[in-house]
Amino acid sequence: MTERCGALGVLLCLILLSSSQALSKRRTPIMGWSSWSVYSCNVQEDGIKVQAQALSDLGLWDLGYTYIDVDDCWMAFNRSAEGLQQANASTFPSGMAALAEWLHARGFKLGLYSDAGTTTCQNRAGSYGYEAVDAATYASWGVDLLKYDTCNTVPGWDPEEGYPIMGKALNNTGRDIWYMMCNWGQGDPATWAGPRALANSWRTTNDLMPLFPQFYEVADANERWWEYARPGQFNDPDTLAMGYLFADPPVTAPATGNTLSYAETRLYFGLWCIMKSNLILSVDFASSEWPRWILDIVSNRHAIAINQDALALQGHRLWSDGEGGNNTDPRAVHVPAGLREVWSGPLVDGDVALLLVNRGESIATINATFTLHGPHCPKDVNVSVYDVWGQRVFGECASHFAMRVAPHDGILLRCSCARPATRPARKGKDRGDHAFVTQ
Ligand code: GAL
């Protein structure tokens, strides 16, 4: 902000600074692990440590999965005699400051959950009326993320007024804390939390069910708000709940069985990557039963690079075979869903991420016609298409390629200019650098 202020003048700059909130200064979506779809309310200190250790052992920490989010039920039912929120003494006997220290020593960050109501969704002590004291408590413990839910709010509570209270309280601590709003998309938070920079991410939907097509419906609902996402402020379609889920009681997901196929799992991950969603795994890595191929998908460096791209702009559906989906204007805001779809998102240096989707029940051929011409790419130069899942160059093409996509699958691609322009692109010209249409 200060760098940009020179030309605007000090006064305008001060106005801008006071009307927006700093929140976490991280610019790209967070990556990590959440307890909710694994432990539900049975979350315990030991389990958190086992999962964090597994993330390290599996190489996921090295890839950036560093936020460990302890969801609902870490806290006691009641506040302490001093009115402070406190850890549940039987499940977190060492307390949250000790857990933060343990995680920080291993390079992880600690996320905690609270609620804007008097009690959380699972009836533990909420933060209503205690926002400043709770924010100060979290900061003193070394918390790095707060997921802030919306159960049991007082009558007349307005999220547009209530959420900034905790946001400001977190900012006042001076600690870099990622503020994750969770009001399930009520009142379209992208339209007010986004422009007012009230949070680092905001949930856009109800809890995700890791089933097909349910996770796709969540993606659709999240896609709708793509224009509102920008660096440090993202739409949040919920976690990556994959593998066997042991929620007990099964609050968010069926309790048994692996719910997604390999193709569905990589479609799910591809959507979250191209949408610049937080990549929060909710996988029980401590169990012996999670399918090992999940690791292949969520460890894919090229997919993660798309999610963590420095432009931090959300990709969206650009074409579908659904009614009204054949809009070839790359600036179209809302393209209706179909059975075959192309999603696209801008990346640094004029690259483009593509996701070719087949929601249908039989194999489909998807055709893509496009150009990457712009400040990064000279005219009449081929486009290099990189197959992210296969980790190989698919080929070079002038302006067209076709791919066969299996049912319920999503092929993630990265398109680059085969011979980049020699002169560097002008700043701020990355978006709209390319045109992309399908037919
Ligand atoms: C829901 C929330 C879930 C989980 C749960 C905990 O409101 O959407 O993600 O946090 O509360 O009780």
Your description of this structure?
This protein is α/β, with parallel strands linked by helices. The chain folds into two domains: 22-307, Aldolase class I (TIM Barrel, Alpha-Beta Barrel); 316-437, Immunoglobulin-like (Sandwich). It is 25% helix and 21% strand. The protein has twelve helices and 18 strands. It has helices at 2-8, 10-19, 36-39, 45-57, 96-105, 131-141, 159-173, 189-193, 214-223, 262-274, 293-298, 301-307; strands at 31-34, 67-70, 109-115, 145-149, 178-181, 201-203, 234-236, 240-241, 279-282, 316-320, 340-346, 352-358, 364-371, 383-387, 392-397, 400-405, 409-417, 435-437. The strands form three sheets. It has a nine-stranded parallel beta sheet. Helix 8 links the parallel strand 5 and strand 6. Helix 6 (131-141) packs parallel to helix 7 and helix 10 runs parallel beside helix 12 (301-307). The chain is globular, with a radius of gyration of 22 Å. 46% of the residues are buried. The model is unreliable at 1-20, 246-256 and 429-433 (pLDDT under 50). The protein binds beta-D-galactopyranose. Residues 36, 71-72, 113, 121-122, 149, 151, 182, 184, 207 line the site of beta-D-galactopyranose.
